[in-house]
Amino acid sequence: MDIVESLLRVALLGSSWVLWLLLALSVVSFAAMAERWVFFRRNRAGGEALRRSLSKALHEDDEDALSKALISNPSVEADVLRAALEWRRGGPEAFSDAVESEIGRARAQLERSMTLLGTLGNNAPFIGLFGTVLGVIEAFHHLSDGSGEAAMGNVMSGIAEALVATGVGIFVAIPAVVAYNVAQKKIADVENDVQALAKLVSAWLRAGGEPHARRAPARVREDVRGELALAEAE
Question: Up-side HSE of residue 180: CA atoms within 13 Å toward CB?
Answer without folding.
Answer: 17
